[in-house]
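Thread: Newbie trying to understand structure tokens

Hi all, I'm a second-year student working on a class project, and my supervisor (Dr. K.) asked me to get a predicted structure for one chain before our next meeting. I've only ever worked with sequences, so writing a 3D structure as a token string is new to me. If someone could post the tokens and maybe explain what I'm looking at, I'd be very grateful. Here's the chain:
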Amino acid sequence: MAKRARDDARKWQVKRRERTRHLIELGGLVVKAGLVELTDDDRATLYGAFLATAVMLRGERRDEALVQWRRRGKRAFEAEAEMRSSDVAGAR
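---
Reply by user tm_fold:
Sure, no problem. This is what the structure looks like when written as tokens:
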């Protein structure tokens, strides 16, 4: 019974760590997009922007918005990776 309790506690800790990591990564995207600086770190403004985005995603143009945002995000990730690889090559 004690072993099972330890296993349950470990599973709970693992899930909690995974959730924490996920939340940190999402916060990193907010910073990476420049939203913190652009809103002067105003949490109400950021939350309002997220709520507006959620409204849009519940609307008729959901699929169009997702395609556009995904493309833009992929291009930004690729450009960032390209910059990092050129920085590494230039540092040699």
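A couple of things are worth pointing out once you decode it. The two ends are 57 Å apart (CA to CA). The helical segments are 2-32, 35-38, 43-57, 62-90. Feel free to ask follow-ups in this thread.
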